[in-house]
Amino acid sequence: xxxxxxxxxxxxxxxxxxxxxxxxxxxxxxxxxxxxxxxxxxxxxxxxxxxxxxxxxxxxxxxxxxxxxxxxxxxxxxxxxxxxxxxxxxxxxxxxxxxxxxxxxxxxxxxxxxxxxxxxxxxxxxxxxxxxxxxxxxxxxxxxxxxxxxxxxxxxxxxxxxxxxxxxxxxxxxxxxxxxxxxxxxxxxxxxxxxxxxxxxxxxxxxxxxxxxxxx
Length: 216
Hints:
The protein is of the alpha/beta class. The chain has five helices and eight strands; from the N terminus they run H-E-E-E-E-E-E-H-H-E-E-H-H. The strands form three sheets. Strands 1, 2, 3 and 4 form a four-stranded mixed beta sheet that branches.
């Protein structure tokens, strides 16, 4: 979800209502993933709605692109950023999306990056069959992010979404480990990976990971 524009242009009452609604949803374990915006602005310094809210049940997402010369992923220069407000990055340049008329088109922007993270959160929730809260899923996504030098001082943890690592971490927390000792019933206590977890990981995340790797 992205409702943003610069402070002073955005209706203040609308901003406050949006912030209150997202905050209230945190008590029902709702996670909101928002695009950080496409103004090349520091949303820590210039308040944007909702990327600057900084609520605990939000993930504001910056965009990365593929360097045409090296092929490496790097920060997209038009993406908004902020080491306090922007928590994660994901591919956002030349992303294929649906288009009216039953067709597809390529789009660029943080509104293309945010759905990668929202989809990843949904996959983790589904794969773990609701055994992890959305707060725990958010933390897994942040803890397993892939560091990129170009994201330092722009994104809080300096990292980009790594779905494979996040899925493996999530499944390890809910899948009993093999061995003579029972796995912890506490979902925040890491457990060793198992063949069951590895098989489910391959089935659920394999195709999407490949898709992300092929994106231009």
